[in-house]
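Possible regression after last week's pipeline update?

I re-ran a chain I had predicted before the update to compare outputs. Posting the input and the new output here so someone can diff against the archived version. Not blocking, just want to make sure nothing changed silently.
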Amino acid sequence: MSLTSDEVNFLVYRYLLEAGFTHAAFVFGAESNVAKSGISGKEVPVGALVSFVQKGFQYMELEANLNEEGTDVYGEYTPLSARDILVKDIEELKVTVRDMKEAAQAEQQDFMAAGPREIAEAAVRRLAGHGAEVISLTWCPNSNLLASASSDGTARIWDLEETGSSGSGRVCVCRHAPQGGAASAELTCVEWAPDGQLLATGATDNAVRLFSREGVLRSTLQGHRGMIMAVRWNKKGDLLLSGAMDGTLVVWDAKAGAQSKQYAHHASSVVDADWRNNTTFASCSQDGSIAICKLSDPKPQRHWQSAHSADINSLRWEPSGKLLASCSDDGTVKIWQATAERPLHTLAGHVGPVTAVRWGQSGSGKSHLASCGEDGSVRVWDAEAGACVHEFSEHDTAVSIIAWSPDARYLASGDASGRLLVWSLRAGGVVRSLQAPSTIYDLRFNADSTLLACCTSEARPILVADLKRQS
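New output (post-update):
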């Protein structure tokens, strides 16, 4: 069924008459030749145009609420505003409905909205065992196995399903025998494979190692001539990328335990690296450059030689791979596109070095970019618009690390004094806080956001906070 232009014109003409706009109705009727349309006014009910518009709105609202198969309403029926229906197409309305449903669900399930802000002592587990400072932490993607990397030459895998509040439970110790004549093998980084079956570590003896989830050494990967600075799995989990102080990056075949590719385009130490997808990655260096490499090409696809005017501290791809974020001691955050020679945005606001950038992605697919700096602030940006949408400033000292919860509802930050804060974007403030003994080196949420682990600059126990526990 469709309306002809004559029928639409007649409905508008009748609406103007019914609304009392007699002169406007006369002019419109004359210009649109309403008298020649052949439509009998007696057959058209009063308020016909308004009725048509209302029914159209209801149809659009219903269509936006349907599930992917179009067979039923998706969850609770969500009413839309007339303005949304007027200015958005059906796909945009579906996104609006999903966002509204998620917001309503988050409000109902936000276990951190209620309860004490300060995390109770009884809600904190202490995992003791390392003989030196713990540098890095990572949660297994599909279980509550927490891996830690320490300067004592070991990684440890803690089973938090079995670990009680006293910190006791099953622990696997992954020992690192120094390679290549090195005096020691102090760990610098650690990361689980996406399927949770392998754990990768990097160390000061220039070697990368792969362990099983039971702590059994599977491979020792040698190819760098400098301390390992970063290890990153691709999304598929078949390739491992490592970056080192010698300026090289190596792509390893995890199954074969062998080198696949090597890149040496940086003039100084690699600081950070991140996969865009299964075959493309980005890296940054102390030389101020950022490069994007594709495995099929021996040379970088894009190489920004002077990406920042000072040391780069961190870079991360937005989950869709559309945007790349970097931060630097020059006080800026920059947003890059792989196809452009210049940054899309240079985000200013921090005073002094920016120490980290991290992306979070909500269930609707919307991405948020967070940054932290030595000025004690934490900022959340609209990366596409290039605007700061939240500024959190409750830290009194430099913020060293930030981490999103997997659903991007919460953002955790840790500072040089050992203060840990959990922020809620919906609430716009702090919902949990904890005082650790010294500078927080790393912090991570587990898969369901109920546990938050942190490690510090002293040889103290790892702290694991139960965020749901009220006392």
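Follow-up from reviewer: compared with the archived run. Residues 369 and 383 are 6 Å apart (CA to CA). Marking as no regression found.
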